[in-house]
Amino acid sequence: MAEFTLELNDDQKQVRDWLHGFAKDVIRPAAAEWDEREETPWPVIQEAAKVGIYSLDFYAQQFFDPTGLGIPMAMEELFWGDAGIALSIVGTGLAAVGVLANGTEEQIGTWIPQMYGDADDVKVAAFCSSEPDAGSDVASMRTRAVYDEAKDEWVLNGTKTWATNGGIANVHVVVAVVDPDLGSKGHASFIVPPGTPGLSQGQKFKKHGIRASHTAEVVLEDVRVPGSCLLGGKDKLDERLARARERAKKDGERVKNAAMATFEASRPAVGAMAVGTARAAYEVALDYARTRQQFGRPIIDNQGVAFQLADMRTQIDAARLLVWRASWMATTGKPFTSAEGSMSKLYASEVAKKVTAQAIQILGGNGYTREYPVERMHRDAAIYTIFEGTSEIQRLVIARTLSGMPIR
Length: 408
Ligand SMILES: Cc1cc2nc3c(=O)[nH]c(=O)nc-3n(C[C@H](O)[C@H](O)[C@H](O)COP(=O)(O)OP(=O)(O)OC[C@H]3O[C@@H](n4cnc5c(N)ncnc54)[C@H](O)[C@@H]3O)c2cc1C
What we know:
This protein is α+β, with helices and mostly antiparallel strands. Helix content is 53%, strand content 15%. It contains 13 helices and eleven strands. Strands 4-5-9-8 form a four-stranded antiparallel β-sheet, covered by helices on one side. Strands 3-6-7 form a three-stranded mixed β-sheet. A two-stranded antiparallel sheet has the order 1-2. A hairpin with a 4-residue loop joins strand 4 (144-148) and strand 5 (153-164). It is globular. The two termini are 42 Å apart. Bound molecules: flavin-adenine dinucleotide (FAD). Flavin-adenine dinucleotide (FAD) binds at residues 94, 127-130, 135-136, 162-164, 207, 210, 215, 383, 386-387, 390, 392-393, 396.
C-alpha cells in the first residue's frame, strides 16, 4: 500500500515549476492589458501552444497522473498567473472533456485536434449547455435536436448563453433536448463542425471579471449536422433513452434532479482555479503589508493586519486540501458519498472571493486602483461562486447527498 504523503513527487514539482514560470513570465505581464481590452488573448494562447501548455496531450498527461494532483496543480499555477487569460487557455478543455466523456474513439480523434489547432494556427472550442431560462435548472433546457432519418442528420434549434468561446470557436459542443419528457436524461451532446451554416454568435457579454475570456450567446437556427456528430452515436443514445424512460416511470422526480450531482469529478478543477486566484492576491497583500509603512512601522506590525493574513493563508491551504482530496478521490475511483467534489468547489470559491476582498483592504487606496492587481483578482474571483454550479447549488448537492432528502 502506498505511503500517505502530501508531498509532490519530483515529476510533479518539475511540471509545477515549469507552469509557474509560464504564469509568471508570460501570463502575469499580459494580464492588465487583456483585462482592459476584453478580448481573447490570442498571442498568449499561441505562446502556450508553442511550449505545449495549450494542447490535449498536456491535459491528458495531467489527467492521468495517478495521484489525481496533476490537474489541480496545473489549474492553480495558471490561474495564479491570471484568471481571464488562464480561462482562455483552459476553456477549450471544457468542450474537449465533453467529447472525451461521451464520444467514440473516432469522434475523439476527429474533433479534439480541430478544437486546439496547432501553434501556427491556434483554435478554441466552446461547450454550450446554459440557456437564458436554463442555468442552474439544466432540466429546463429548450434547445431541440430533431433527427431527420431520411438524411441521417440532426437539426438543432435554440439559443445558448454564457458560452465560453461561444461563436469564436472552431468546434462547438452543443447540449440539446432529444426527448423533452425525460428532463436532463433526455439531453444529448452534438458536435457542430467549423463553418456549419445556421450557427452564429449572439451578444458578446461585457463582464465584471475574467474579461480576457470571451463569453457569448450562441444562436442555432436550423443547424444541420451529420448523424456522426451525435456524441456516442445513435445506438447508444437509443439504449440510454429506453433505460431512462423505464426509470422515469418508476421515479420521475429523481430523474429530473439527477443532473445536479453529475459534476463531482470536475468541480475540484474549478476549486483549484479559485485557489490560484486567492493565493495570488494573498501574496500581493503579504508583500505589501511587509513594506508599507504607516505610523513609523510596517502595517503588518498591527495584529489587525497580520491576523487577516494568517486567516487568509489558513483558508487557502484548507481549500487546497479539500481540492486535492476530491481530485484524489476522482482519480482513484472513490465514491463521493458526501459530495466532496462540490464541497471543494464551494469552499475554495468562497475563500477566493473573501481573500481577494481582504487583499484590497490591506492595500488600502492602492488596492482599489488598477495600478495594483488585487482589484482585478477580486473581480475575477466572483466567477468561481457562479459557474460550474453556483454556491447555492453546491450546498443543495451537499445537503441532499448527506441527508438523502429531496431538499429544495
Ligand atoms: C463568465 C461565465 C462563463 C460561463 N461559461 C459557460 C460555458 O462555457 N458553458 C455553459 O454551458 N455555461 C457557462 N456559464 C453558465 C454558468 O454555468 C451559469 O451562469 C450558472 O450555472 C448559473 O446559472 P444562471 O446564471 O442562469 O443563474 P440562475 O440559475 O438563474 O441562478 C440565479 C441565482 O439563484 C440561485 N438559485 C437557483 N436555483 C436555486 C435553488 N434551487 N436553490 C437555491 N438557490 C438557487 C443561484 O444560486 C443564483 O444565486 C458561464 C457563466 C459565466 C458567467
